[in-house]
Design a protein that fits this description.
Elements lengths: L11 H9 L4 E6 L18 H4 L6 H4 L2 H6 L1 H17 L4 H13 L3 E5 L5 H5 L6 E3 L2 E8 L6 E3 L4 H5 L20 E5 L8 H4 L1 H9 L1 E7 L6 H12 L4 E5 L4 H9 L2 E5 L2 H17 L2
The chain binds 2'-O-acetyl adenosine-5-diphosphoribose.
Length: about 280
């Protein structure tokens, strides 16, 4: 087990101290990498959903409204498989450290996640300061848009499915209008919006942030990149936590404002919280 001292950076404390002295919220932006240590495959890593694919389909073809309209039961089958993987996973030290960050920072804390696995909620991150900008795999919604979100656990058609691929005979229907229920997840051929995915709220948060901490993401989708660009443009420092360089660590290099903590979320996010506790304890 690595010692705590192995994960400390002398530049971290002064960066956190100066961010505390500025107005604005601390944004934590997370991607699949924060859940990798919980056993959930990332999207573009060696074990990722996109690379594995199932025998007949490549996941990128499944995560679309077009695929759903053509074969709703097959798309639901794949989401049920992913849902069960997420349900079997547990939040890890990084998720728990962000729960503590919310307690220490109060209303200055905001968590924006691309992950649909629900692990931030299950770890205890406050829902009112959590934006799930790609949705949440544990919920369904009417494909005709007539109702709110329904937990998958409350959809008998999905509960009746055995659990193996091809077990689901037909997709669940909306109780109000009879249209298919669909996964509450943003698809490749769809767009961010405010009501379902907090688009404007995320952009607004980026425009007055005191600090942006980017954890475990390649920046493969545009809203996270927008958030970083808005923040960097106004001089907000970035802290980037990732085993690999990425567009966000490149922005740290270009702007000279921030820090790239190269390593796993389970190592560096708790280390960041140790530093924050120490800085807050100083007179
Ligand atoms: P990716 O799979 O694209 O990237 C995972 C990132 O996590 C990479 O940068 C890895 O280096 C990093 N990583 C891996 N293990 C890690 C660890 N233990 N600690 C920290 N980082 C680690 O996943 P995302 O960037 O989240 O969108 O993908 C973004 C979006 O692309 C997904 O939300 C999905 C996909 O299209 C939708 O479903 C709408």
């Amino acid at each position: 087990m690595a010692s705590d001292s192995q994960f400390s950076a002398p530049e971290l404390a002064p960066l956190l101290r100066s961010a505390l002295g500025r107005s604005g919220r601390w944004l934590f932006l997370t991607g699949a990498g924060i859940s990798a240590e919980s056993g959930i495959p990332t999207f573009r890593g060696p074990e990722g959903y996109w690379r594995v694919g199932s025998r007949n389909y490549h996941p990128q073809e499944l995560a679309t409204r077009q695929a759903f309209e053509a074969a709703p039961a097959i798309v639901w089958d794949w989401y049920l498989h992913r849902y069960r993987t997420c349900q079997q996973a547990e939040p890890n030290a990084a998720h728990r450290a962000l729960v503590e960050a919310a307690q220490l920072l109060g209303q200055r804390f905001l968590l924006i996640t691309q992950n649909v696995d629900g692990l931030h909620r299950r770890a205890g991150s406050p829902a009112e300061r959590l934006y799930e900008i790609h949705g949440n795999i544990a919920y369904a919604r009417c494909s005709a848009g007539c109702a709110g979100l329904t937990p998958l656990a409350e959809l008998p058609a999905l509960q009746a499915a055995g659990g193996g691929p091809g077990e689901l005979r037909e997709a669940p229907c909306c109780g109000q209008c009879g249209a298919w229920q669909r996964p509450h997840v943003l698809w490749f051929d769809e767009f961010y919006d405010e009501p379902l995915f907090r688009l404007e709220s995320s952009q607004r948060a980026a425009s007055d942030a005191a600090l942006l901490v980017v954890i475990g993401t390649t920046g493969g989708t545009n809203l996270p990149l927008q958030i970083a660009e808005i923040a960097v443009r106004r001089g907000t420092p970035l802290i980037v936590i990732n085993p690999e360089p990425n567009p966000f660590s490149d922005q740290v290099d270009r702007s000279g404002a921030g820090l790239f903590l190269r390593g796993r979320a389970g190592e560096w996010v708790p280390a960041l919280l140790r530093e924050l506790r120490a800085v807050l304890a100083q007179p």
